[in-house]
Amino acid sequence: MRQFYIFIKCELGRTYDVASAIVDEVEESRQVHSVSGAFDLLAQFAIPLEADIGRFVNQKIQTIGGVKDTQTIICFNAFTSDRGLGET
User: Fold this and answer.
1) Per residue in 47-84, pLDDT tens?
2) Domain range holding 44?
3) How far is residue 86 from each of residues 42, 44, 83, measured CA to CA in Å?
4) What torsion, rounded to 10 degrees, do the Cα atoms 7, 13, 18, 20 define?
């Protein structure tokens, strides 16, 4: 699977609608976070290796009502830890 993230800028007042649509309707979504800054959402996706990321973004994300702009971040490697959240 190819992992990537998309920063999403939403129309005013539509952030929660867009986040819900991604979670409910886009099977390839893994996580969606509301964020501060130039964009409103940061969403993680995973698609098959042979799939076209550009076509996915264009057809499945940019067409969601309330999406104003996107910026795609393609991942090369994932580094993980076996530590749980909340440990001190």
Assistant:
1) 999 999 999 999 999 999 999 999 999 988 888 887 76
2) 2-74
3) 22, 22, 9
4) 120
